Amino acid sequence: MDFLTNLGTGFGVALTVTNLLYCFVGVLLGTLVGVLPGIGPVTTVAMLLPFSFTLPPESALIMLAGIYYGAQYGGSTTAILVNIPGEASSVVTTIDGHKMALAGRAGPALGIAALGSFFAGCVATVLIVVAAPPLAAIALSFGPAEYFSLMVCGLVAAIVLARGSVVKALGMMVLGLMFGLVGTDINSGIRRFTFGFRGLADGIEFVALSMAVYGLADIALNLEKKEENVEVHSRIGRVWPTWADIRHCIPAILRGTGLGSVLGVLPGGGALLAAFAAYTLEKKVAKKPRSFGDGDIRGVAAPESANNAGAQTSFIPMLTLGIPSNPTMAMMIGAMMIHGISPGPRVMTDRPGLFWGLIVSMWLGNLMLVILNLPLIGMWVKLLRMPYRLLYPSIVVFCCIGTYTVNSNLFDVYVMAFFAVFGYVCVKLECEPAPLILGFVLGPMMEENLRRSLLISRGDAMVFVQEPISLFFLIVAAGLLLVVALPGIRRTREEAMQE
Amino acid sequence: MLKIKAGKDFWSGIMFLCFAIVELYIARGYSMGSSGEMGPGYFPVVLGIVLGALGALLVARAIIAGDEPVAGASIRPLLLLVASVVVFGVTIEPLGLVLSLVLTVAIAALAGRQSGPLEIALLAAALAVLSVGIFHFALLLPLPIWPAL
Amino acid sequence: MTAKLRISSLAAAIGLSLFATAALAQFYPTKPLKLVLPYSPGGVVDFVGRTVAQHLGDVLGQPVVADNRPGAGGIVGTDVVARAQPDGYTLLLMDPAIVINPTLQDSVPYDLFKQLDTISVVSSSPLVLVVAPGLNVKTFDEFVAYGKANPGKLNFASAGIGTTPHLAGEMYKQSTGITATHIPYKGIGASYTDMMSNKVQFAFSSIAGALPFTTDNRVIALATTGEARNEVYADKPTMSEAGLKGFSVDLWLAVFAPVGMPADVKTKLNAAIGTALQKPDLKAAFAKVGVSPRGTTAEAGGTFVKADYDKWKKVIVDGKIKPTN
Questions:
Q1: Residue A498 in this model has a pLDDT that exceeds 80
Q2: Which pLDDT does position C235 carry in this prediction?
Q3: Domain match, C203 and C150 both
Q4: Is the pLDDT at B128 greater than 80, yes or no?
């Protein structure tokens, strides 16, 4: 009955008025920074860190955690409504989510995103309670070779994101990998492909790139499409998902939650890979995969469940091992240290109130988010009723401020202007940005882990097949390549021949 | 019979080739290293070759199997949009958030040719107030609000 | 930080700047100050910077706004301050990268000694030598012996080329004659999984990074690199005590300002920093991340920074550590 005792301890801590209040403040702030393009949970948590010193440690961590998973909810809103991924992990949501919004189904898209996230959040919370130690072992068993093979697997899976030509999708992915190379090489310390700009020393800013190729390029296209009378989002449609929608999505949500929970544990691109993998899986198992990319509700439900589950389970290595799986978790560790708590296996036994309180608060926070977000959907959808001539300058303004505030660096704003043109050209040539973004995010990690593996193995490439987990991913990748790429290439060839 | 109609695939291929060539040209200055200690040039060179090959494949396929024409583009909205972003960059630090946003919104609104001057002015004012509220007061970001004297 | 305060200080700033740029020390400061932190939010510099900003603001009676200007290993933020007005309103908090970069990089945009003035060294924290448990070494001597007996087998982790953990590792190699392969990570925290599984065998880590792993011996702390023992690792010897005389690495943080600040403003600022560093709240906050408050005169600070510059220059030149094409 340990389990129930623990939960009881947790509820005892999380249900106090103070902690409920800080949880609410956290998820509210998180939703806000998630909706705003640019500024993300990392910045917000960092700014609140010194303030959290004055709070009891339980309240501080509950609030900071709320900001993090709250931002995951908020991020999907922007992705669906205005086609701007707030974070890398919501890139996938733009594919079908924004198409739904264009077709007047923004409400159901937002609704299913919220419900899927809530479900995933609940499951992941239970997982943390019952299976934190075995899941943490996964994170420990991943060395550089395993990561490299996982990245390979993820990139291969990304090919299915493509709706058109597989060759173009591959090209965009490789181009994304290249863009990811820009900046200081961590192994040699030299600056690559910076064209002499100091502003590129740390690479191309993700926010600038994604807002340009999604947000700004999209606006430019809309404006030229209907220069006469731009009313892109004229149709609103119903606000809530129907029962049929929800039933249709249940398997997708379940699979997304499962994938997200496992991949979220991995440090690095866990949540991002989870979202991509969930989308890929749905497209593969669906009976009519062709509707994916044209506003299939399952294309929203699966990745949104996956990235929220991943966000939640990324607490596992932090809480049980003291290993930060992303920058926000690194700051949570900082917050614990400020309060004199060393994250690691001992937290659970030394500070049960804190450990279980935090976990229970995540569940409560998810509940708050659903209660907060479902009524807000009506308001968000009304935003689309705003005439486009007023909406798009507002998007431009938030893109500019968002990009500028990430690093307080003007150079990033100019980078965004440059990539807006690039993104526009890509859309004109039917080269889709999703594989580009995936390559961009995973590329540096892939190179880093490749070189690190070979440094440690002293140049022996066999290390990738000698480690069982690494070998497993390589086999999966090879299998995917065969299953996915061959018919894909053949199909486009056939289509081309028919013309 | 082989009439080259430059279309979407053709130009995509050309774009990939261009990026590949520029990248390989720059990467020739980085050392390849050995497999045990890969130099900074190793991975980029591999990527450059792969991208170049994909580009060449696209071009070849476009020539042999035909191609779809690129839809017409009107450059004006794009240019004004980019201009508004650049103007934001140029003015945010010297002029502060409020004035910078007024200029950005004005130029962005021109891109759509839909709004009258009064509407643009109102929109700019509303966005300025909203942004100062959100970024300065709610999120406490160190953004300049007014021109530095 | 109320709206009223901001508006009144803005009005004051506008009014005053019409008259004079060189503010008189008795009125200084009349508007909010800016403390530039050249790293991303999160991490020790950011945390210490925000803590110092908060308390310094209380002492001076004007808010001190922490302004993150990350980029190029601190070069971007440092350059912003090097080119700022020396009016006492733009300050920089920086770590040893400020003295390492000029030697390590081919070119940096600022001249450390001609454009920047040390106001005060605000904190010190040693690194801690941690080793993988798989080595089965319990003491520093055993570790040195293991390294000598197993040439070419050891790997050491760092937070990237030219970071203090990297240079400390190189200095260790130079002073013991041991060989080890450098494995850079993005931040020392990322290396701990590989250290626990013995893929990487040792690292000179920040205390904040090491603490979660050393409390239950998932990695083994052997020694600290300060002049004196550190409170957090009071039972571990310093490197000097353990046998490497003169091996000292300090992850100090200092406040800098553009050269040419009026002398009385500089004095007032230095005194205010000294007062802020005495506050119990600040001391408590520093202690949690293994940082000790310090506080020096401007002269002593300048001498210290120059000495550290010379020390790292020697390590970099002797070890031929350069970003190479």
A1: no
A2: 92
A3: yes
A4: yes
User: Which residues between 57 and 116 in chain C have a beta carbon less than 8 angstroms from any beta carbon of chain B?
Assistant: 65-67
Chosen domain end from C242, C261, C294: C242
What is the Cβ-side half-sphere exposure of residue A279, based on CA atoms within 13 angstroms?
Answer: 37
> CB–CB of B38 and A394 under 8 A?
no
What is the number of structural domains in chain A? 1
- A-chain CB neighbours of B82 within 8 Å are 216, 417, 420-421
Mean pLDDT, residues C184-207: 88
Q: Chain A partners of C325 at a C-beta cutoff of 8 Å?
A: 188, 190
Interface residue B147 vs chain C (CB under 8 A): no
Is residue C118 domain-shared with residue C10, that is, in the same domain?
yes
Is A171 in contact with B51 (Cβ distance < 8 A)? yes
Task: Indicate whether C120 and C257 sit together in one domain.
Answer: yes
Residue B131 CA: distances (Å) to CA of A75, A80, A250, B136, B141: 19, 22, 39, 7, 11
Which of A67, A193, A397, A408 would you mutate first to test chain B, the one with the most B CBs within 10 A? A397
Model confidence band, residue C140 (pLDDT cutoffs 50, 70, 90): very high
- Shared domain for B58 and B87, answered yes or no, is no
For residues B68-82, average pLDDT: 86
* Residue to test with chain A: of C90, C206, C215, most A Cβ within 10 A: C215
> Is B149 within 8 Å of C13 when comparing Cβ atoms?
yes
Task: Decide if C99 touches A, using CB distance below 8 A.
Answer: no
Q: Which residues in chain A have Cβ-Cβ distances shorter than 8 Å to B84?
A: 393, 396
Report how far residue C45's alpha carbon sits from residue A415's, in angstroms, rounded to the nearest whole number: 27
Q: Which two tokens stand for residue A365?
A: 């926070």
Residue-range definition of the domain harbouring residue A126: 2-498
Is B149 in Cβ contact with C1 (below 8 Å)?
Answer: no
Of the pLDDT bands very low, low, confident and very high (cuts 50, 70, 90), residue A105 is confident
Tell me, yes or no, whether B127 and B95 share the same domain: yes
Q: Is the pLDDT of residue B48 over 90?
A: yes
In this structure, what CATH number is given to the domain that contains residue C209? 3.40.190.10
Determine contact: B72 vs chain C, CB below 8 A. no
Looking at the structure, tell me whether residues C172 and C207 fall in a common domain.
yes
The shortest C-alpha distance from A219 to chain C (Å) reads 30
User: Tell me, what's the pLDDT at B2?
Assistant: 46
C67: in domain:
yes
Same domain, C86 and C136: no
Give the domain extent around C14: 3-124+252-318
ipTM above 0.90, yes or no: yes
Q: Which among C184, C207, C242 is the end of a domain?
A: C242
Chains touching chain B at 3 or more Cβ pairs under 8 angstroms? A, C
Q: Is residue C324 part of a domain?
A: no
> Does pLDDT of C67 surpass 70?
yes
Q: How many residues does chain A have?
A: 499
- Does B26 contact chain C (CB < 8 Å)? no
The verdict on A352 touching C (C-beta cutoff 8 Å) is: no
Counted domains in chain B: 2
Domain that holds residue B123: 75-138
- Give percent of chain A with pLDDT exceeding 90: 25
Is the per-residue pLDDT at A71 higher than 70? yes
End position of a domain, from candidates B16, B44, B65: B65
Given CB atoms, is C17 within the 8 Å cutoff of chain B?
A: yes
Does residue B59 sit in the same domain as residue B80? no
The stretch C239-262 carries a mean pLDDT of 92
Does B140 contact C at CB distance below 8 Å?
Answer: yes
User: Which residue's entry shows tokens 């300025």?
Assistant: B128
Q: Are residues B12 and B51 in the same domain?
A: yes
Residue C237 — φ and ψ, nearest 5°?
Answer: -70, 160
Work out the average pLDDT over A442-463.
89
